[in-house]
Amino acid sequence: MTAELVRGQNHPLPQARLEIRVSAGEPVLAGATLSDAQGKVRGTEWVAHPGAPTLPGLEVSKQAAADHRLAFDLDALPESVHRVDVLIALPTGTGGPVRFGAVAAPFVAVTGLDGSEVASYTITGLDSESAVIALELYRRQDSWKVRAVGQGYAGGLAALLADQGLAGAAQLASGINDAVVQGLARSVAPPPPRLPEGDRALQTPAPAGSQGASGTVPPQQGAPGAPQHGSPYDVTGAASPVAPPAAQGASINYTHPGRAAGAPPPPAPTAPPADPGQPAQPVAGAATGWSMEERLYNQVWGMFEDLARTVAAYRSAVDFADSRMEQELDKVLSDPRSRIGGQGHVAREAAQTKHTELVSQARAALDRDLTQLIAESDVVEPALPAAFARWDNPVWHGYRVPMEIPMALRLGDLHLPESENLRIPMLIRLPLERGLWIDSGRSGQLDELVDQDELRRLAMDVAVAHAARLLAVYPAGEFVVHVIDPAGSAARSLTPLVRSGVLPAPPAVGPASVADVLTRLTERVDLVQMAVRGGAADALPPGLDTAEQLLIVNDFPHGFDDRAVTRLRYLADEGPSVGVHLMMVADREDAAAYGPLLDPLWRSLLRLSPVPDDHLADPWVGHAWTYEPPRVPRGSQVLDQVLDQVAEARRTWDR
User: Fold this and answer.
1) Deepest of 47, 79, 225, 542, by most Cβ within 10 A of its Cβ?
2) What is the dihedral of CA 186, 190, 192, 197, to 10 degrees?
């Protein structure tokens, strides 16, 4: 039975290995400090935080998130440690809340490794505090207890660390926040929870600046243990396409007059197993949602969540096995008699045997879960609609220009080293509210195998594939692509877009053409923003194109003067809120001459790679996911056929 603690109350801990789960509703950083018998933190090496997440006997999250899972092995803590304080704090410099009084009361729970709760504590009564000691784990007569603390600090993390007697508290707090900001800059962002159909309304998108410097909103949808209807790859924003400016001044109610508002229908039932002793057979669409598209979307998100959870459990088990073997070997080596006698050899073999058994058990559990997920993927992948499907999916052979915008778009695949045979679709919600950056620079080991010129070509090929997919999933006339290629170096990659006629104008080449495209798009952003804010949509020029716009910029910063760079940054910051999106194809090192001036630009974009690269971090357990870009099968004409249909539909629509 779970003990629901109140401030100051304690409870015995029945086991040494446990987890502490934190749920705050908003992105917070989580950490822990170790104290000796006098309650003193001896140095920065006794503080676990996102910049140094692992200490002997404990591990914390590597970045800020709304939900955390902290792992503890109390028996592995140094003998001199008598107390562990679990802390949470609101990160600074991310555009999020600055005090706990503005967010929901944080909730912490102590659980066993099987997920069973031992004790829980809801931290209430916080106001101006931005850092708080949530729980205290302490020794009592060779056993451990947990106490609910809830001590808040208006001075933030620096004040909390200083109160524990830590020298250099302010410097450490600053370093921790820097580590959090860097982690958020490379995270993928989730959507808001999906609302029931009767409650859906199109709201005016929030300004891009409200998302913080990195443009990333860490996970609001919950911890891996609490399934939600969202995707870790989305950004906060409207669930429907950007409406014409006249419709953006107020909410639009999409309630169906014949449908009662309420929760979505239950998920589709799974097929019963042929053998009662076997797991149920997977079924495509076995998730909640109003439509098959929404159910498949939620099912893909659930698969991502399940894979993250099972790999985290496997890695935790292996780490524990390694730690246990090291401790047992240390005990053997600490005794001189054991080091030279047969007793030491026997002890070492016993430790290795235990380690092998633990790792084998963990691997068996992982393989079981992976087998089930692969079976589900084999069923789900062929059932995906075009917007969610790979280019080699047969659904593209029956492609027709849609009448409605889908809820999400596939940008590639994700996998982990432990799951080489399992690919999870990377879906991002539409409309886009964050630009894309196709990194043409060298970033990983795989890049070393590719020539630099070939890497740039591959980056542009990926950009064209993304643009083609965006054009394909929007109704005719509702999405327009512009291209800036100052030196004309991307002519080969741009051939499908140019040949099909889907571009309203040829790619901009040379400084004058670049300036013209940027000027027109900047003016469009200004006009629509003024119309929306002033409620004067009728005053827009009659010829203004209200379709969503995508600007592909190749080979940045070559061919860009300071004025063009300023306009590009403006489009990245302000464009998404009024339907102007940016796709950069660039090597960040090429722009190094600008110094930190362009750092906000890179942080505001979702970085993707033209070759497989493990640069995407999930916001829960810090896995480094390997991203694989979309590939059109070699020799396939599917891209040209799709673009031809898009171009024909646009010509018909223009008539």
Assistant:
1) 47
2) 150
Query: How would you classify the pairing of strands 548-556 and 580-586?
Result: parallel
> Closest Cα to residue 191, out of 227, 248, 241, 229?
229
Q: Which two tokens stand for residue 301?
A: 């998100």
Predicted model pTM: 0.61
Alpha-carbon gap, residue 521 to 530, rounded angstroms = 14
Q: Which helix (H) or strand (E) holds 349?
A: helix 342-383
Distance CA 434, CA 276 (A): 47
CA dist., res. 549 & res. 478, Å (int): 9
Nearest to 556 by CA among 508, 619, 520, 618: 508
The SS3 call for residue 121 is strand
Residue 20's DSSP bridge partners are 70, 110
Rounded to an integer, what distance in angstroms lies between the CA atom of residue 85 and that of residue 148? Answer: 10
Backbone phi and psi for residue 397, each to the nearest 5 degrees, phi listed first = -75, -20
- Contact between 619 and 65 under an 8 Å Cβ cutoff? The reply is yes
Which sign does the torsion angle of CA 588, 592, 598, 600 carry? positive
Walking along the chain (655 residues) 10 residues at a time, the average pLDDT comes out as 82 91 89 88 90 89 86 90 94 83 90 86 90 92 89 91 88 87 57 41 34 34 36 34 36 35 56 59 84 91 90 88 84 68 75 90 92 93 94 91 92 92 93 90 63 89 95 93 92 94 92 92 90 76 84 89 90 90 92 83 90 81 86 90 93 77
**What is 462-527 written as a DSSP string?**
HHHHHHHHHHHHSPTTSEEEEEE-TT-TTTTTTHHHHHHT-SSSPPB-SHHHHHHHHHHHHHHHHH
SS3 call for 372: helix
Contact 130, 176 (CB under 8 A): no
CA dihedral sign of residues 220, 221, 222, 224: negative
